[in-house]
Amino acid sequence: MFIAMNRFKIARGEEEAFETLWRERDSHLQGVPGFQGFHLLRGSSEDDHTLFASHSIWASRAAFEAWTHSEAFRKAHANAGGSNRSMYLGPPKFEGFEVVL
């Protein structure tokens, strides 16, 4: 099993807009081989931002990597950020994890 996470620093006051953006977007993940689940996590807040993480679960690293080269991936990320770039304090930070237990 493989877990793919992206961490986002979202400007304070933009949390609801960020959550709505994720709630309403078409992820194009349903039916992708190896995809098992997704969560959007809301973390702690600092003076200037709130931390969020996207968390997707895959059958294997190979399944995740295959998705990153697929048409579904291109469609899901076609408008990433879009006109809402001001809500992001920098680019997302990717973290990938192999499940060991």
Automatic annotation (TrEMBL):
Organism superkingdom: Bacteria
Domain ABM: 2-97
Gene3D superfamilies to which the protein is assigned, alphabetical: 3.30.70.100
Keyword tRNA-binding carried by entry: no
Keywords, sorted A to Z: Monooxygenase, Oxidoreductase
MF GO annotations: monooxygenase activity
Pfam families in UniProt: ABM (PF03992)
SUPFAM superfamilies: Dimeric alpha+beta barrel (SSF54909)
Protein name per its UniProtKB record: Antibiotic biosynthesis monooxygenase
Species annotation: Candidatus Macondimonas diazotrophica
Lineage start: Bacteria, Pseudomonadati, Pseudomonadota, Gammaproteobacteria, Chromatiales
